[in-house]
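Lecture 7 notes: from sequence to structure.

We start with a single chain of 447 residues. Read the sequence below before looking at the structure.
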Amino acid sequence: MKAFKAYDIRGEWGPDLNEDIAYRIGYFLPDVLDTDTYLVGRDMRLSSPTLFDALTRGLTDRGKNVDFIGLSTTPLVYWTTAKYGYGASIQITASHNPKHHNGLKISAKNALPVGYDTGLNRLEALVESDKATTPCETKGVIREKNVYADYLAFQKQFVGQHDNLNIAVDCSNGMSSIFVHELIGKAHYINDTLDGNFPNHEPNPLEAHAQEQIKALVKKEKCDIGLLFDGDADRITFIDEKGRFISPDLIIAFLGDYFIGEQQQKGIVLQDIRSSRAIQEYLDRYQAKVETWRVGRAYAALKLRELDGCYGGELAGHYYFRDFYYSDSALLAASIVLRLLAERKKEGKTMSQIIDEITPYSNSGEINFKIERKQEAMDAVKDHFMQIEKPERFLDFDGYRLDYPDWWLNIRPSNTEPYLRFLCEAKSEGKLNDITETVKRIVQEHS
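Now the structure, written as tokens:
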């Protein structure tokens, strides 16, 4: 089925995901994650109430109870799942996808992510099967559960004094709006009302078009920093005082000043396979070990828990925290970045200076190739560079990563889209351009 992805269930409402499919997901989910009560939250998308009704009708027809926490960020569902000991939970959201999309993010006990390899494959088979959905004699019930106050109290532990900062915030008309004012306080806010039409821009903080408003606001108001949330508030990106987009992986390094430097937490820091080498180099000051792993929450949250890492992050703007049940929270990341920047501002440092001090590398950014022969193209790129020089490090999960003394590259197939994704980093702009052009040529030969 088209809506079942590597990390979650997501697609266009109607063609890919509809009321019948949602009902069958609810009805058959207990065959994959069996528990008496399922925690459910939803975002503000126009189709979310309908999806909620169908999903919960399936669950209650199966004799299962539902605790509904109402309008919710995805991290709130993760936190509530682990905090209150739920055996399973579902957040209704399509995250950063366009307005006509919707989906489900499913978690097991302790907010462990359920991906295609860990249960969604079995659920998909049941939904697609011809098995009947006969309502139980004793149906389950839907109960409302209010956790906002407890959640805000938890989040406020990480909020520092940042009154000296001039802050710009773009909520993308998404779910961060329900908590952001109380946690960040005085700031220049835009798109901070819930609107499932996303009238101002798509809720994807990595898209250049989505960044235009926050960049303009930072410059207009002479802000120290800009914050841009995605639709369900599990991702965030940052804009420096010059209006420049900050590569999200570099924020992983910056967060180390709080968790390892100030808090002196012990444990590994997790990054994804696309992350800058500057992270390890920056965190060497704390003798911290950085582990590299696969892209996506379905892998990252499990790996961070396995390692008992103190925190981690991804190039996409996810940040995971041991203090947050090894799950991701954009609001928590925002609080830590603001408290760190407030301290650095007292020392005369700007956000751009901080980031420039973290990385000495030129970066290509992620380049996407639409191509059918993904594996052949990836192998050709790998073989070309390995024949010239053996890399210092070679990783072959989630595509390939080749590390050399002054540069590295990653080439990987998208798990959710028909693209081959390439990223490179080098100590010089000239070297970066040479590698990028070589890769483009090789990939084009296999298109």
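Residues 330-346 form the longest helix (17 residues). Keep this in mind for problem set 3.
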